[in-house]
Amino acid sequence: MTLFHELYGAYFRIAARVLARRRSTKLEVQEIIQEEGFRDSVLFVPPRLLPQKDGSDWGLLREAEQGVYEPVIQHLPEMPVTLLEKRWLRARLDDPRMGLFLDDAQIRALHRELAEIDPLWRPEDLDYTDRFADGDPYTDKEYRARFGILLAALQRHEVLDIQFTGRFGLAQRWEFLPLKLEYSGRDDKFRVHGWQLDRGGIRRSGVLNAARIRQIHPTGRIWQGELSMAFYFEERRCREPVTVRITPERNGVERFLMEFAFYEKKAERDLETGECTVRLWYDKMDETELLIRLLGYGPVLEILGPPAFRAQAAKRVAAQARLLKHPENS
Amino acid sequence: MSSFSELIKSFGKTRDYVRDFLIYGFKVRGDFTRRSSRTYDDEKRRVESWLGDYLRYDSSVRGKQTSISVDSGHSAENPLYQAYYARSFTDRDIQLHFLLLDLLADGEARTLREITDGLNAQYGAALDEQTVRGKLLEYVREGIMLRGQRGRLVTFRLMQETVPALLARYPGLEEAVQFFSEQEEFGIVGNMLLRGAGRRNCLFFRKHNYIVHTLEDEVLLPVLDAMERKCSLRIRTFSSRSAEGREAIVIPMQILSAAQTGRRWLLAYCPETDRFSGFRLDYLESAKPEAPYAEYDALRERYLKEKAQCFGVSFPIPGKVCPEPLVVVFRIDPETEGFVIDRIRREMRCGKLEKAGAQRYRLTLAVFDPNEAMQWIKTFTGRIESVTGGTEAVRQRWYEDIRRMQEVYGDDIVS
């Protein structure tokens, strides 16, 4: 059983899609290559997939008439589920989050179906050193029901009437159009991104913690307008990136680049000093989280700008200095 | 004439380049010294073909920097999965694959002779039995072909369940696969399932998404296999600082991930040092299960006991006394800053938090290596009254760090 196997490869997928058609023109083959393949596949695949006079092709198509090709096979090329895929599914059945998508009877049935299959891993094989302790209650019946409503509305572009507990403990009620569900492995929580609506129009973007939703009702209203995630995230993006300088002390550069790998960023290194200057773009909602994580690097990292962001760091450092100077703490 | 191909035979070499393009966006051609410049050019061209839209080029005084720029929290699909879809194959592999699928589409069991004759008669394939047998056995191992018996003859038949059929039988399963296809644990396999059904994830994002971890999935498989079979493991690691690798025989215990720093380790017992050590997965070149380890269960028990004393992955050294607990006192107003107390509680791991006064909260961390907690403790800069216990070196460094940060930011404060 192999993970890196041509059975799953892009070229096999291209061939399968072309062979599933009774007849294809060269142009149609190229379109499939562009959809399934890599950027340059259109250079490499056609001379192998389409019949060649010298027989250097894969022998899967023949020319039915000029410029039109048909498969040499009779049936649809249907690929069975592989052992790797079954073992992965079996491992996933042990995950409590599976209950957010399948009901208990379905999970039991799938368990029975995969009874002879060893899971690809067991829950105790993998663990986190630092996952937050207050993850979402995935097995809670009401949470599962609310999650199901969210997921269905998201797929249908349906507007929801949601009551939830806000960040400072205040009860709120929104007319809300969900766009995407987001999961954080660190927080072990689901959040839903969407538009808060007001009298049928978009008021602003919003992110709700799934576990803080108290009441959720589908309204039956389907959103007909455009749903652009690029526009949504642009609205949430910081105006200016944060610029930081990291020194090589304590392996700071490597640690930083790894930790902040998921941010959109641009890095430059000074060869003489080994220092690295990085610009990071972030979601405005995450500004405080970003600030404290940067402070965690101590003097190995300096926040260079923007000035308002640097000022927040300076304020905390000054507060820290005051606490240490206090006679009670000396 | 160039023999360049988009496809690759082994994953290891490519894995290094993709990782460096993603993590170290500032590297130029001359920085890739582990292999030749020609290799660099080929690997870069492949990555450009796989990840075209994500490649970024910047000019620096040292040359052109190539980087992979991904806002992974806003990507519905890990772009690095593309590397797994670039396995090379022979002309015979692809031809035989589709002809076998066609010939055996009826699900009937056939002998090797029947299959070979069928391939040659129906498709004019000119195949010999040895070639066909090799492919059939390979497909038995991959689970798409079932081996059986007819009298004394071995038979083969094609498994009939396809991914679209499986997803159709379990409403909701497709959404589950969409979700899990972007999770850390072999999300690539979920993506393979989706692709097999002509689907893609369009519902979920993953925050704090270290997409680079997928590059470690291939080397992770034999590690998990060794843990399942309670075997020792021969590992080969490499270092970012030197081209020299290192080989060791270890007893694998668990894979640990740091969700906040993006690092992952194989935690394993090293008989040479009688200690559990963490081996970074991104520096693990290869892993091969060896013989079953007789004392595995007892070792696992000891591992779990010692793990309870760790803030990260630094395990006790036999014979070395555990330092006294690290004690951090925070100044927090519970009326207006209750969220800080909540944050400590959810992030303190094995720590113990107590109220120590009107606006004072005392966190006690009885851990083997208090230094591992210090980066996290510094995220509370501005709220720490004192740091005591632990080791002298840890305390000194923290006070020194605060002094140096004051030097850096001190002039910014206008009182």
Topology of this protein?
The complex is a heterodimer of chains A (330) and B (415).
Chain A (H helix, E strand, L loop, with lengths): L9 H10 L4 E2 H11 L4 H4 L1 H4 L11 E5 L2 E4 L11 H11 L10 H10 L12 E3 L12 H16 L1 E8 L5 E14 L4 E10 L2 E9 L3 E10 L6 H8 L5 E5 L5 H8 L4 E6 L6 E6 L5 H9 L5 E5 L1 H19 L5
Antiparallel strand pairs in A: 1-3, 2-3, 5-6, 5-9, 6-7, 7-8, 10-12, 10-13, 11-12
Chain B lengths: L10 H13 L13 H15 L3 E6 L2 E6 L22 H13 L6 E2 H12 L5 H14 L2 E6 L2 E6 L4 H7 L3 H8 L6 H10 L7 E4 L9 H12 L2 E7 L8 E12 L6 E7 L4 E6 L3 E9 L3 H12 L16 E8 L6 H10 L4 E6 L2 E6 L8 H5 L5 E7 L1 H18 L6
Antiparallel strand pairs in B: 1-2, 3-5, 4-5, 7-8, 7-11, 8-9, 9-10, 12-14, 12-15, 13-14
User: End-to-end distance of chain A, in Å?
Assistant: 62 Å
The whole-number mean of residue pLDDT values of chain B reads: 92
- Helix segment tally of chain A: 11
Counted beta strands of chain B? 15
Q: Characterize the biggest β-sheet of chain B.
A: 5 strands, antiparallel
CATH topology call of the largest domain in chain A: SH3 type barrels
Helix content of chain A: 25-40%
Q: Which CATH C-level class of the largest domain in chain B is it?
A: Mainly Beta
What is the name of the CATH topology of the largest domain in chain B?
Answer: SH3 type barrels
Q: Main beta sheet of chain A, described? A: 5 strands, antiparallel
What count of domains describes the coordinates of chain B? 5
CATH architecture of the largest domain in chain B: Roll
Indicate the CATH architecture of the largest domain in chain A. Roll
User: What is the gyration radius of chain B calculated from CA atoms?
Assistant: 27 Å
Strand proportion of chain B: 15-25%
Work out the radius of gyration of chain A: 27 Å
By helix and strand content of chain B, what is the structural category?
A: alpha+beta
Q: Give me the strand/helix succession of chain A.
A: HEHHHEEHHEHEEEEEHEHEEHEH
Strand order of the largest sheet of chain B: 10-9-8-7-11
Level-1 CATH class name of the largest domain in chain A: Mainly Beta
Head-to-tail CA distance between termini of chain B: 71 Å
